[in-house]
Amino acid sequence: MALQDGTYRIGPDVGRLLVHTGRTGLGSKAGHDLTLGATSWSGTVVVDTGDPARSSVTIDVRVASLHVVSGSGGVKPLTDSDRADIERIMRDKVLDAARHPTITFRSTRVSGTLESFTVDGEATIMGTPRPVTASGSADADGRVRARATVPQSRWGIKPYSAFFGALKVADDVVIEVEVALEAPSP
Question: Whole-prediction pTM value?
Fold first, then answer.
């Protein structure tokens, strides 16, 4: 089925939203590169194949729904206790989910083609809006993939560190969204 013009609802039932972190510092070999997933997120994609500038994207992510999907590297595998600690620190200390429960993205411009597009927009993290650019592609069958590199410090987030700063989460994180746009909403 070819991708049709229209409005599509997106969320975990038709796709996935992942956050990839890296590590840096003298103790980086001790830490893990993490993949986090969101279980509670939703959005809308408006597709206009004839005039991509009339297309748009909105996404809302519940911070408390972010969880550790996997961790690679490190001197030992991640335990369930490690995962719980990472999720608690991310939710309570890094992203302050109690005060800022939602991360949002609102597009301001879409350009390109289905095979290669750019979405410029504004992400609001911890109550602070900042510009973000994502690049992506769509298959003829409606599978859409997009990714953006987001420097945490741009939003005033101090990347997590341990061992007196010898192990740090890299400032840049990569946000990746993959969804199936199956049928436009009525």
Answer: 0.88
